[in-house]
Write a structure and sequence with these properties.
Helix content is 75%, strand content 1%. With 541 residues, it is mostly helical. The chain has a domain of 89 residues: Tetratricopeptide repeat domain (Serine Threonine Protein Phosphatase 5, Tetratricopeptide repeat). It has a two-stranded antiparallel ribbon with strand order 1-2.
């Protein structure tokens, strides 16, 4: 029975019950051979059906008892009325509903099962009972039937969408959501969910359209997820300008939305626009001062913008606050290097090495601090300590390369050559070692054919590397092949502005007796490296 009709019967029942005798309220149904008196109440039900007055009396009492909250007595009265009319849908449904309200869903389901057929109300109650019993499979069937009988029933499709999503049945979930937006096209939350599902399925265009429909229905702070979703899709599609427009639009509507500020930070970092990311990163920290990853990101932005004091303050405060993240000490060490506070850098990098003793970068940074402190023994010890602890071959090769460079800088050429050749035995395509060893030999004028072969392999592995092209040109210069030297050195000079490359190119022009060009390139080299006395002497000759 629908709710308005039942409310009407509450009023009618209150009036008619005054005319019915109390003695008739709980009589048993008559024998099958009796012929009960019937009355017609078409003005109340509109059904034109005859009722037994005793049954009706029980029915009226049941309604009144429901209204008063005495559900158990109401159920008893409904059962008396139902004994007279066992095929009555209204009575059977009403009893089932009272059982449900009494928190006896199984009894309610048993009563519903006795009905010859059910309408929308019956299936709605059946679904609720199965939900109460924790039986989602049966509830799903009931809601499906409810959706068939009442295609505009949002409750049914909402349950179906939730149930199918829990099962990861995406196609059925989309079907349910599509029906929900058919029923209510302005339901921004449903459009938002559809956008997320389409995005998960890789249907980018449909996802964008769904998020846009969500925003068209409601551009307010409570719909920030749609803005974030649409912005993220534009970012993934490398449509950064569109992403910026969408997220900015959202921040105009909700300037304190931390999610959108975070998206804007990520967007600008992807574009290397650190200055534009900074105000959003600051706002995130203002909104969530205890969010340490966001605080660290703010420190990183200051570092990249060369605002070293601000970055220093942030990372120092994090460490003083008890955060022992290696990230903090890593950046504090590099800040100290840039401030030329080498003892402080050493201390920070020692902390990093304690935290990450199997990472080659930790030991390379520590060694650099010792190098700047003019402590070569400690520099070498940092490399060798790291070499004893690292686990991957890549990290081992990085440290061995650093050791080879260390030997070369100290003039220990044979030790350097031995180290670089050991690297090439482990990895014949290690192009950094190929170039370093080849250039070192070429610059000394030793084993030139071997040096050329080494550098040639490096260039083949990385043909756009200007340093390798410079080495290649220089070994040809040492071999006296000046035309080939000029060819390689001119390529390198087109790619970088580097004093060594320009100096080598000047030497090559000098070798082919193009004095004016030689002096031009030496002057360019000196403009870059004004303290280079060797180049200055060339120009003074």
């Amino acid at each position: 029975m629908n709710v308005p009709m039942k409310r009407l019967l509450y009023i009618v029942a209150a009036t008619l019950s005054l005319t019915l005798t109390a003695s008739a309220q709980f009589q048993a149904p008559p024998d099958s051979g009796s012929n009960p008196i019937r009355i017609t109440l078409t003005n109340i039900t509109g059904a034109g059906q005859n009722f037994n007055p005793l049954a009706y009396n029980a029915y009226v009492n049941a309604i009144l008892l429901e209204q008063m909250g005495d559900l158990w007595s109401a159920a008893e009265s409904y059962k008396i009325a139902l004994a007279y009319y066992p095929e009555s849908y209204e009575l059977g449904y009403s009893l089932a509903e009272v059982y449900y309200r009494l928190r006896e869903p199984q009894k309610a389901l048993t009563q519903l099962a006795a009905l010859k057929q059910m309408d929308v109300s019956g299936y709605r109650l059946q679904a609720a009972c199965y939900q109460a019993l924790g039986n989602p499979e049966r509830a799903l069937g009931a809601f499906h039937k409810l959706a068939e009988l009442e295609p505009d029933n949002a409750q049914a499709f909402s349950f179906l969408a939730t149930a199918y999503r829990a099962r990861n049945d995406i196609d059925s979930t989309v079907w349910a959501y599509e029906n929900l937006v058919r029923i209510d096209p302005l339901n921004f939350r449903v459009w938002n969910e559809m956008g997320r599902i389409y995005a998960q399925r890789g249907e980018t265009d449909r996802a964008k359209a769904a998020f846009q429909r969500s925003l068209d229905a409601n551009l307010s702070p409570e719909n920030s997820m749609a803005i974030a979703g649409l912005g993220e899709l534009y970012v993934l599609g490398s449509q950064l300008d569109s992403a910026e427009i969408v997220i900015s639009r959202g921040l105009t509507a909700d300037p304190d939305n931390i999610l959108l500020h975070r998206q804007m930070v990520a967007l600008y970092i992807d574009r290397d626009s650190f200055d534009l990311a900074l105000p959003h990163a600051k706002r995130v920290v203002e909104l969530a001062p205890l969010d340490r990853p966001s605080v660290r990101r703010l420190g990183l932005l200051y570092f990249r913008l060369d605002s070293l004091d601000q970055a220093d303050s942030i990372f120092t405060d994090l460490v003083r606050g008890g955060e022992r993240a290696v990230f903090n000490h890593y950046y504090l060490g590099h800040i100290a290097i840039l401030k030329r506070q080498f003892e402080r850098a050493r201390d920070e990098f020692q902390m990093v090495a304690q935290f990450e003793d199997t990472a080659s970068q930790s030991w390379i940074d520590l060694a650099f601090a010792y190098h700047e402190l003019k402590q070569p023994e400690n520099e070498l010890r940092s490399y060798t300590d790291g070499l004893a602890r690292v686990r991957s071959s890549r990290d081992s090769l990085r440290l061995r390369f650093a050791i080879g460079s260390y030997y070369e800088r100290l003039g220990k050429v044979e030790d350097a050559i031995s180290m670089f050749e050991s690297i090439l035995r482990a990895d014949s395509n290690h192009h950094q070692a190929l170039n370093y060893l080849g250039y070192m030999l070429a610059d000394r004028g030793e084993r030139l054919d071997y040096a050329r072969n080494l550098i040639e392999r490096a260039v083949q592995l990385d043909p756009s590397n200007a340093a390798y092209l410079d080495s290649y040109g220089w070994v040809f210069y040492r071999l006296g092949q000046y035309d080939e030297a000029l060819k390689q050195l001119e390529k390198a000079a087109e790619m970088v502005s580097d004093a060594t490359v320009f100096d080598h190119l000047g030497d090559a022009y000098k070798a082919v007796k193009l004095e004016d060009k030689a002096r031009l390139w030496w002057q360019r080299a000196l403009d870059i490296d004004s303290s280079n006395t060797l180049i200055r002497e060339k120009l003074q000759r």
